[in-house]
Amino acid sequence: MGLGVSAEEYRRDLQDRIQKAQRIARHNVREAQERQETHYNRRARPRTFQPGDQVLVLIPATSSKQLAMWQGPFTFIRQVGSVDYEVRKPGHRREQQQHVNRLKEWKTPSSMDGPREGR
After folding, report:
1. What is the pLDDT of residues 50-74, one digit of tens each?
2. Three-class secondary structure of residue 38 per DSSP
3. CA–CA distance from 68 to each of 20, 28, 93, 95 (Å)?
């Protein structure tokens, strides 16, 4: 007793349904990536540094992979890629490459203080 559909028809129908599901999945992934990009870029700020600038570097703590601390200041040497930068720690001879997301501008304590009035 047959199912009323030949094996070849069943295979073609199944293949069509799989291709349709793949198209839907690709579309959904593209939309999700666009939403994530929009969400990320809302708070992202472009950062540029000039050779000689002082920067802080976000370095993971040795006690925990989840814990990181801003350390520095390091001296910015040069940009080595679209998002990679070379920095040097004072007193060290070798440079370290760091991703731009792990760098931020170093502000000296005097630059953080606003103008003082009445003194």
Report:
1. 999 999 999 888 888 788 899 989 9
2. helix
3. 45, 34, 24, 20
pTM of the predicted structure, to 2 decimals: 0.58
The first and second tokens of residue 112, run together, are: 């953080």
From the number of C-beta atoms within 10 Å of its C-beta (0-12, 13-18, 19+), residue 66 rates as: exposed
DSSP assignment of 44-73, as one string? Answer: -------TT-EEEEEEE-SS-TT-EEEEEE
Q: How far apart are CA 81 and CA 68, in angstroms?
A: 24
Count the helices and strands in the chain (H runs, E runs): 2, 5
> Which of 107, 74, 70, 106 lies closest to 89 in space, CA to CA?
74
3-state secondary structure at position 109 = helix
